[in-house]
Design brief:
Largest sheet: 6 strands, antiparallel
Strand content: 25-35%
Order of helices and strands: EEEHHEEEEEEEHEHHEHEEHEHEHEEH
Oligomer: single chain
Length: 363
């Protein structure tokens, strides 16, 4: 479990640090303060050479451009990963974490990723050239590193990203990232298939019942009739008082959001769940049930959670959960992110409860 996180020259942060991290951490702050960038930094730190995650993040932000390569391909415009939105030889950013080892209490290990731009000599057709290369080093992983040549536009070709893959079956870390727009139907079907006929399948149904108690069962379907007709397709539910298969898209935003959150956390066992704007699509009356589900699942499945919000109801609902917990080092924190500050302002479980009781705004 991450105990602290240090970011240098990544996105909007020249230097930034999160400390006193718990099992469940809610990031709050104004727009453009860097909350989503922190989630991306944690994902990149735990990517274990899986650059497909980087591709998904950057395409989602629109940080890509047309390639000069044949076939009209695309490139990742990686300058936006660096502080100041520019790259040249010598530029670098780093993400470093102190990770507690649960099996050996009191023993911490440092892990990190360093990404830099360098000049490398290349011999092509008997001519020596100097070209910019992106160097990615994963610290604490036997000095693992990869070197990827940048294009003439100083972009990262998607073809190179696809070639650099690694078998992650033996990885100790599993990370799930739920964006503010939720997971895609294809991703949710993939995650649901992993929990069918396991104890976690019942947890998925229970989560949906917190919003609609009449839901009796949920299933993914392969029929084109249900799967490809909309962005919320691929699932049907059966209600306790009927025998019809009802497309889940008919049940509203809250059901879809709760399904995505639950599938993500049960598939992040022994890893990390990242959620951007966790309250998206949820009425304030459902937030306490959402937090209870997330918190109990995080403890049972050994998942560390990082989420963001702008919503006062969201953090106040979290305070209700914190008030029922004994204060602990692996508990609940609210981390307030402020522009220009190098450290977050940390609210521990006890401080979160006191702030809620006294009406003190922590956002």
């Amino acid at each position: 479990m991450l105990k602290s996180l240090r970011i240098e020259n990544f996105r909007c942060f020249r230097m930034f640090e999160l400390q006193q991290l718990g099992k469940l951490n809610l990031l709050v702050g104004t727009n453009n303060s860097g909350k989503t960038s922190i989630l991306e930094a944690i994902q990149l730190l735990n990517s274990h050479s899986n650059l497909e995650l980087l591709r998904e993040v950057m395409i989602g932000r629109g940080e890509c451009m047309l390639s000069d390569e044949q076939g009209n391909g695309r490139e990742l415009d990686i300058r936006h990963l660096f502080y100041g939105h520019r790259i040249d030889a010598g530029r670098r950013f780093s993400i470093l974490g102190i990770d507690s080892n649960n099996e050996n209490e009191g023993i911490n290990k440092n892990e990190g990723i360093v990404v830099s731009v360098k000049h490398e000599e290349q011999l092509r057709l008997f001519e020596e050239l100097r070209e910019l290369v992106l160097v990615i080093e994963w610290l604490g992983q036997e000095d693992e590193s990869i070197h990827i040549p940048l294009s003439s536009k100083e972009g990262l070709s998607l073809n190179h990203v696809r070639r650099i893959r690694r078998d992650l079956k033996n990885s100790d870390s599993r990370t799930q990232f739920v964006t503010s727009s939720s997971l895609t139907s294809e991703k949710m079907i993939e995650l649901f298939d992993q929990v069918v006929l396991t104890p976690e399948e019942a947890l998925v149904t229970e989560a949906l019942q917190t919003i609609e108690p009449s839901i009796d069962r949920i299933a993914s379907v392969g029929s084109d009739k249900y799967r490809y007709t909309g962005t919320r397709s691929g699932f049907v539910v059966r209600l306790a008082d009927g025998d019809q298969r009802i497309p889940i898209g008919s049940m509203g935003d809250g059901i879809w959001r709760m399904l995505g959150l639950t599938l993500a956390i049960v598939n992040a066992r022994n890893g990390i769940l990242l959620v951007d704007e966790i309250d998206t699509g949820l009425h304030f009356s459902a937030m306490s049930d959402m937090w209870k589900l997330i918190w109990e699942a995080a403890k049972r499945l050994n998942v560390q959670v990082f989420a963001t919000t702008h919503n006062s109801d969201c953090w106040m609902s979290l305070a209700e959960i914190a008030s029922n917990e004994d204060p602990s080092e692996e508990g609940i924190t609210i981390q307030r992110i402020e522009k220009g500050k190098q450290n977050s302002i940390v609210f521990t479980e006890r401080q979160v409860v006191i702030a809620a009781e006294r009406g003190i705004e922590v956002r």
